[in-house]
Amino acid sequence: MTDAVFRNFIDGRFDEPSATFDSVDPSAGTAWARMPAASEADVDRAVGAAHRALRSDLWRRMTATARGKLLVKLGDLVAANVGRLAELETRDTGKIIRETRAQIAYVGDYYRYYGGLADKHEGTHVPVDKADLDVTIRSEPIGVVAAVVPWNSQLFLSAVKLGPALAAGCTIVLKASEDGPAPLLAFAELVHEAGFPAGVVNILTGFGHDCGRRLTSHPLVSRVAFTGGPSTARAVVRNTAENLAYTTLELGGKSPVVVFADADLDSAANAVVAGIFAATGQSCVAGSRLLVERSVKDEFLARLKRKAEAIRIGDPQDPATEMGPLATLRQRDWIEKVVAESLTAGGMLVTGGTRPVGSGFYYAPTIIDAGGSDLPCVREELFGPVLSVLAFDSEAQALALANDTPFGLASGVFTSNLGKAHRMARDIHAGVVWVNTYRAVSPLVPFGGYGLSGLGREGPRTSRSPIPSSCAELRRTQVH
Ligand code: NAD
Predict the structure, then answer these.
(1) According to the model, what pLDDT value does residue 478 have?
(2) Which of 188, 239, 295, 317 is the most exposed place for a label (fewest CB within 10 A)?
(3) Are residues 168 and 269 in the same domain?
(4) How many domains does one find in the chain?
(5) CA-CA distance, 33 to 226, in Å (whole number)?
(6) DSSP reduced 3-state for 449
(7) With 70 as the cut, is the pLDDT of residue 29 above it?
(8) Is 446 exposed, middle or buried (0-12, 13-18, 19+ CB in 10 A)?
(9) The domain that contains 356 carries what CATH number?
(10) CA 136 to ligand 1 centroid distance, Å
């Protein structure tokens, strides 16, 4: 039996669910709550409400400054509720409490950032080449936004969709993943409390094949913002053939971390360990491919092994725990399969490869010396705590290995040579290249990938980004 029941938030009301499914606590492997399974009819109601709200005077005539104030209030409410939201996310996904607390505290800043951005949209005046004709270009909300997120970091991933959409004056239907939706459904109460008009924000959960498919193909949706895996992204692109919605995709990665012999090796080892084992490896930017200069490989691997084996694995609600379980059993099955295939194909296990705790979906921090780059653990995104190691002998070889992937989301370079750092940062084909650090993100910096890692960018438009950000994309231009 489960004790908690969550509800969808549609048109300003919390619905009594007509269908539900169990949500599983990954640290125990048992159901703990019932989640609403939104049907296609529920999606139609939510999109209908968002479309009415978009056209309502209440929202359409609200000044951008007033919209911004609502976003700032939402940010403050998130900050005031970090403890409760973090506990729910930890319960529903197994992500450790010290990570969920820190990340959700930062989510408040994202809403405040977008609140400040709301009234900074300016139009332009064009000195057109026709006598007696004056042209102004005004930006306006693109329409109803459908946002779909995966199970890891749902509050964070939603903030970079909700924030710009609302700042731009759009309305939104946000689909939480069917895995671990509790924090987003609880966050809906804060949206309600912040005072957004009914229908402006709708939050629901359900399964991809019906709820997700209907939402992203809905004729009243003009913009799709999707985060998830590449194969689902292909389905979403097929869905948007129906409504021709402008679509951005934030997908997976197989991010390389390049460690040169001249790097501060202890600092690099800390970053590599945090880069792959934080969030139990379930992070789109996880540094899952270590490329290390051969002359320091053995020494560096010995450091990594020591650090990985010292990680405290256990109850994710315990603040002392450093690594929790995987979020789903399906995820652990997949990781075990790829690791087994990689070891059969010649990979050498440095550490891990086991289930360290009896119940729950735990998997030990794992390092595989891959030898060559053809092993499945080097090619596939595992989305788990598995680091594959390759050695290189020259800068050119390091670069070739770093770019030898269909993904291009994140990467890291560790070196004390400034020239080398700049060359690698310029030539690695990834949306982010961190130098002598890893995983630093900010609301002020655009984010996104190349190839199988996605399409478009989320975050602000800046002079450094030639690609319009989601905020700009959420407002189409209109010529008068
Ligand atoms: P997933 O692709 O299986 O699911 C993502 C979402 O899509 C879920 O809400 C799901 O219900 C929905 N969905 C499934 N089928 C659908 C369909 N046919 N139409 C519409 N929606 C559908 O992803 P996951 O396994 O939950 O998450 C892991 C993936 O997400 C990894 O690849 C990871 O790298 C990626 N990710 C990327 C980023 C980023 O910012 N680039 C961030 C986090 C996670």
Answers:
(1) 46
(2) 295
(3) no
(4) 2
(5) 26
(6) coil
(7) yes
(8) buried
(9) 3.40.309.10
(10) 40
pLDDT band at 357 (very low <50, low <70, confident <90, very high): confident
pLDDT for the residue 475: 52
- Distances in whole angstroms, Cα of residue 23 to Cα of each of 81, 85, 101, 358, 412: 22, 16, 21, 20, 35
Q: Which two tokens stand for residue 235?
A: 């389905």
Q: Which among 250, 268, 299 is the end of a domain?
A: 250
DSSP 346-407: T-EEEE--S--SSSSS----EEEE-SSTTSHHHHS---SSEEEEEEESSHHHHHHHHT-SS-
User: Which residues does ligand 1 sit against, CB inside 6 Å?
Assistant: 148-152, 157, 175, 177-178, 207-209, 212-213, 216, 227-229, 232, 235-236, 239, 250-253, 284, 381, 383, 409, 454
Return d(Cα 432, Cα 286) in angstroms, integer.
12
Residue 139 pLDDT exceeds 90? no
Looking at per-residue confidence, does 192 or 126 come out higher? 192
Q: Is the domain of 145 the same as that of 200?
A: yes
What is the per-residue pLDDT for 202?
98
459 occurs within a structural domain: no
Q: What is the CATH number of the domain that holds 159?
A: 3.40.605.10
Domain boundary among 213, 232, 250: 250
Please tell me the pTM assigned to this model. Answer: 0.94
**Domain range for 350:** 256-448+468-479
Distance of alpha carbon 312 from alpha carbon 289, whole angstroms: 23
| Nearest Cα residue to 53 out of 193, 217, 170, 216 | 170
User: Is-catalytic flag, 242?
Assistant: no
The DSSP output letter for 15 is P
Residue 463 lies in a domain: no
* Rounded Cα distance, 146 and 58, in Å: 21
Instruction: Could you list the beta-strand ranges (E) of 240-347.
Output: 246-250, 256-259, 289-293
The residues that bridge with 21 in the sheet, in sequence order, are 35
Distance CA 214, CA 61 (A): 29
- From the CB of residue 154, how many other CB atoms can be counted at a distance below 10 Å? 26
| Helix, strand, or coil (residue 437) | coil
Q: Are residues 233 and 347 in the same domain?
A: no
DSSP 195: T
Best residue among 40, 227, 242, 248 to mutate for probing ligand 1's pocket (most ligand atoms within 8 Å of CB) is 227
- The Cα–Cα gap between 268 and 270 comes to 5
